[in-house]
Amino acid sequence: MRKTMVYLENDQFLMLKKAAASSKKKVSEIIREAIANYLKDKNKVDYFSFVGIAEGPRNGRTSEEAEVVLREVLR
Predict the structure, then answer these.
(1) Does residue 64 register a pLDDT over 80?
(2) Does residue 4 lie within any of the structural domains?
(3) Residue 36, CA atoms < 13 Å, CB-side half-sphere
(4) Chain segment 24-52, per-residue pLDDT in tens
(5) Is residue 37 part of a domain?
(6) What pTM value is reported for the model?
(7) What angle do CA 3, 38, 15 make, to 5 degrees?
């Protein structure tokens, strides 16, 4: 574990202290949990974000087959 410094607005600090007191956790614990949750969400891959961004073949059934293609890729 590494030590670091974080600058907070006064109201953020007060709300954090209040949350720590009511949850019986340390402020540092709450900060680590918040950072972990933030980073977890950033590392998620949205496999469906590419659907519809490109033109498929003429007279193709790309949109109808997108789920089939995704199932094969995600196996």
Answers:
(1) no
(2) no
(3) 6
(4) 999 999 999 999 988 887 777 777 777 66
(5) yes
(6) 0.55
(7) 70
Domain, as residue range, for 17: 10-42
The set of residues, in sequence order, having a beta carbon less than 8 Å from that of 59 and lying 6+ positions away, is none
Domain for residue 74, yes or no? no
Mean pLDDT of the chain: 83
DSSP structure class, residue 24: T
Q: What is the pLDDT of residue 61?
A: 64
Domain count for the chain, please give it. 1
Q: How far is CA 11 from CA 7, 18, 27, 31, 47, in A?
A: 12, 11, 14, 15, 38
Q: Is residue 62 part of a domain?
A: no
